[in-house]
């Protein structure tokens, strides 16, 4: 059964609703959510509750650094992120916080590892930004496939017997064969705050039977999401970032 992989929702209800509707219309019923349910956006409680429902229905759900910051200090974040987390804390109940606190850093299924940031130090929240980072991450797991989020920009890396990784630029909507003689790391772009210059939401579809991966872009009501950020009194930069997709 194919699995829809979503990450970096960032309290963007409109983007999450659009991605889930798109996935369900495609017949997808299996989900993995790679963390950062909250932060930046205007609907943290709704997004936490919706993802918790997915988990109750069998989805993998992981912890992201913004989720951790809700019950931690967030001191290593930039000022914009800290402001959003401070706002978010006041909108979540103790039950929401307890749920976030319960989430694991990583999960494995079959030949795949799911993790928010990387496989070599999941709790340190380092980004996979290039082939060296990808190779380092792949070297720390025996799984053939690794799926991560955190960066907000889609990317795909593959490594052969030497362990060196090469970058592959994925084209949305195209099924990419994940050749079994290679190991792969996919950076799944953000649902709720894309940063590659395209405002449309991202998610990915992994087909274990065919060993293939498809990156998906989904248009959503960016105008409403940005308006809600402004009305909530969150920093203007968070609204304009949604509109610009970066």
Provide a quick synopsis of the model.
This protein is an alpha/beta fold and 246 residues long.
Descriptive labels:
246 residues, alpha/beta, 6-stranded mixed β-sheet, 12 strands, globular
Multimer state? single chain
Share of helical residues: 25-40%
Structural class, please? Answer: alpha/beta
Number of helices: 8
Radius of gyration: 17 Å
**Apparent shape:** globular
Major sheet: arrangement of strands: 3-2-1-11-12-9
Poorly predicted runs are: none
Question: Alpha-carbon distance between the termini?
Answer: 33 Å
The largest pleated sheet is described as: 6 strands, mixed
Provide the residue-averaged pLDDT.
97
Provide structural commentary:
The chain is built from 8 helices and 12 strands. The protein has helices at 13-25, 44-56, 65-71, 79-89, 94-102, 131-138, 222-231, 236-244; strands at residues 3-6, 30-33, 60-61, 106-109, 112-115, 145-148, 155-159, 165-168, 175-177, 183-187, 201-207, 212-218. The protein has a 6-stranded mixed beta sheet with strand order 3-2-1-11-12-9. Strands 4-5-6-10-7-8 form a 6-stranded mixed beta sheet. Helix 3 packs across helix 4 (79-89) and helix 7 (222-231) packs antiparallel against helix 8. The mean pLDDT is 97.
